[in-house]
Amino acid sequence: MLFLYEFLKHQTLWKTSQQTGFCYKSTSIDCANFARDLFRQYTKDFAFNVKFSGNIEIDESRFGRRSKNNMGARKGCRVWIVGIVDRSSKRIILYPVECRPEEVLLSLINKHVEKGSRIFTDGWAAYGKLES
Question: How far apart are CA 79 and CA 60, in angstroms?
Answer without folding.
Answer: 10
